[in-house]
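for the recovery benchmark. tokens below, seq after
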């Protein structure tokens, strides 16, 4: 695999801003939409205290409503810029581009195609918003292709250490029948793609994702890099839980990983909260869906005894950052949490 001119930075590297999209689609949180704007305001407040927030809004009126609520929440509006664009949903992790550094350290937006997680038909506005927003911000872009076609890739499907290693699941990217992103792609196709566009020379393949995840296996709900040679992996200790076998099998895979430089990959356990249901549906509640932004780590909490343990694990792993819990009991009814709804943009390197 020949590496291309780009490198996908790790999430803990210096950032220009974090992107959010103000919630506007009640169908993402049926019966629970009312409190979601307050959760977003709290997230934006905490992010704005540590860096710039770029907030996507659907109209000038939506911008005014968001400003009012952010002001009530005590957010630093001087650190928030608003960008008007039409979107279907608000999961910026997946419909915004992947931001990479080129050989000079400049930032390029890689506009992968977005197909609604190969599941939802209403995704055309999300797909178009990526180009429009980068034009507004003056960020140059490219549209990755492989085998003569645009490539579909969501940000939540991968996690990188910035030093050539990347995590992904077979369930999400290699399943030949369910939510197929790129028909006909095999393991080698993805590894060649990651090398060409993301500067990756080691793809670490996990098996299945967690129960309740309607993306069919996004890796950011179960395993994340926290340093170049360390990952956190969710652990389920209840043999009767739907996640027990899959998470154990993923740990077995990771225990054998040796990184390109010869170091053994360190695997740190992150607990799972007790199974969370709403309206009879298992939700993808996971502490792995945290966001690293500037000097802060925002971590999801679920009114669960394991909240304290998870925050403690992350605090030990990020001693120079403030680890802040954000209640996601309502938010995860949208089948995603903090990492899913946000997207960091790295700073150019001099």
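predicted aa per position
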């Amino acid at each position: 695999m020949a590496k291309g001119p780009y490198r996908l930075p790790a999430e803990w590297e210096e950032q220009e801003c974090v992107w959010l999209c103000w919630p506007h689609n009640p169908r993402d949180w049926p019966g629970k939409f009312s409190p979601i704007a307050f959760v977003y305001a709290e997230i934006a407040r905490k992010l704005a205290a540590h860096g710039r927030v770029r907030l996507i809004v659907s109209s000038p009126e939506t911008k005014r409503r968001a400003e009012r609520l952010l002001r009530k929440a005590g957010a630093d509006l001087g650190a928030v810029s608003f960008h008007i664009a039409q979107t279907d949903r608000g999961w910026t992790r997946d419909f915004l581009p992947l931001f990479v550094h080129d050989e000079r350290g400049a930032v390029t937006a890689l506009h992968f195609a977005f197909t609604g997680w190969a599941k939802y038909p209403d995704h055309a506005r999300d797909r178009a918003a990526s180009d429009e927003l980068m034009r507004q911000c003056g960020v140059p872009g490219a549209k990755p292709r492989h085998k003569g076609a645009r490539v579909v890739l969501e940000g939540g499907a991968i996690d990188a250490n910035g030093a050539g290693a990347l995590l992904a699941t077979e369930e999400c990217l290699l399943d030949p029948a369910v939510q197929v992103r790129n028909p006909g792609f095999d393991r080698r196709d993805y590894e060649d793609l990651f090398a060409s566009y993301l500067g990756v020379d080691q793809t670490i393949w996990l098996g299945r994702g967690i129960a309740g995840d309607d993306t069919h296996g996004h890796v950011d709900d179960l395993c994340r890099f926290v340093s170049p040679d360390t990952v956190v992996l969710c652990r389920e200790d209840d043999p009767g839980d739907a996640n027990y076998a899959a998470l154990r099998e993923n740990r077995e895979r990771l225990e054998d990983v040796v990184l390109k430089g010869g170091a053994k990959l360190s695997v740190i356990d992150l607990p799972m909260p007790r199974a969370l249901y709403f309206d009879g549906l298992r939700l993808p509640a996971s502490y792995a869906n945290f966001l690293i932004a500037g000097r802060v780590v925002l971590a999801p909490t679920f009114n669960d005894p394991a909240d304290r343990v998870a925050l403690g694990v992350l605090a030990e792993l990020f001693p120079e950052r403030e680890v802040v819990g954000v209640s996601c009991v309502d938010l995860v009814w949208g089948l995603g949490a903090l990492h899913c709804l946000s997207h960091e943009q790295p700073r150019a390197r001099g």
